[in-house]
Amino acid sequence: MNLRKHILDTLAGVAVLLTATACNGVFDGIYDEVPATPTVTEGQLLVDATSWKDWYYVDFDSLRTYIEQKDTAGLLKAQTRFAHFPIPTTLSGGAGDGQTGIYTYWFDVFGKGISVNEKRSFTPADAQEEPPSWSIAFHRNNVRTNGGAVLETNYKSMSELPKSSIDFLGATFQPDEWSENEVWTDQSQMLQSLIGCQGIKINKVLSTWLRLDIPPMPPAFTMNSHVFIIRMKNGNYAAVQLENYMNAEGAKCWLTINYKYPY
Questions:
Q1: Over the Cα atoms of the chain, what is R_g?
Q2: Rounded distance, CA 117 to CA 194, Å?
Q3: How far is CA 123 from CA 184, 189, 191, 195, in A?
Q4: Tens-binned pLDDT, residue by residue, of the chain (263 aa)
Q5: Alpha-carbon distance 53 to 253, whole Å?
Q6: Cα–Cα distance, 34 to 20 (Å, whole number)
């Protein structure tokens, strides 16, 4: 019985391990090598969102400044390198707010899939650190905004968009929402199909541009190439579209994003 349980636990661990390597190379240096010369054009971002441990931040206003100053070198750097901060997993002091922290969930990898899951424990942690100025942030297939809201359109290219965001003034934009089981960060209990997840607000509309499903094995990715409109908290608008979720070497969760700002 113990041998059988060990085998089942090992298989479960392999399944979750495959989930991890699908977006973040546990075998670093084989799957997730950084391209020597990233290829992006003006109006694009290339975001390495493979890390389980970090959020990566984009500031559209900074990108706009580089364009206005015609600083080509600065713009390329801003399009491919981003401020990043680790996900806190411990509480530095006090009792916490009872909500911010790491939620451990069991996922039904071998049954009905990861959409079936159960909360097992909670560990309080510090709030997520952020840069002074940012517009959107990325963690694997998760996206959040800085107090903004998002609308999914039916347009499939940036060229199809209306000339002005005024066409969307009457539309319903969805703000970020609390999540306890979507931002996977702790792999330490993978052998039991348990994943530690950050409790944090994400934009569940914008995050639909890249969906991960288990089963099948290996995990299946589905990309939604619709254009999304982001309404910033300052009233400005941006249009974004996921063009690709793999880099030139085939590593997943390398996001090539078309953007238009201000829109």
A1: 19
A2: 10
A3: 14, 14, 19, 13
A4: 443 443 344 444 444 444 444 454 333 332 233 444 567 888 999 999 999 999 999 999 999 999 999 999 999 999 999 999 999 999 998 888 999 999 999 999 888 999 999 999 999 999 999 999 999 999 999 999 999 999 999 999 999 999 999 999 889 999 999 999 999 999 999 889 999 999 999 999 999 999 988 888 778 889 999 999 999 999 999 999 999 999 888 889 999 999 999 99
A5: 14
A6: 18
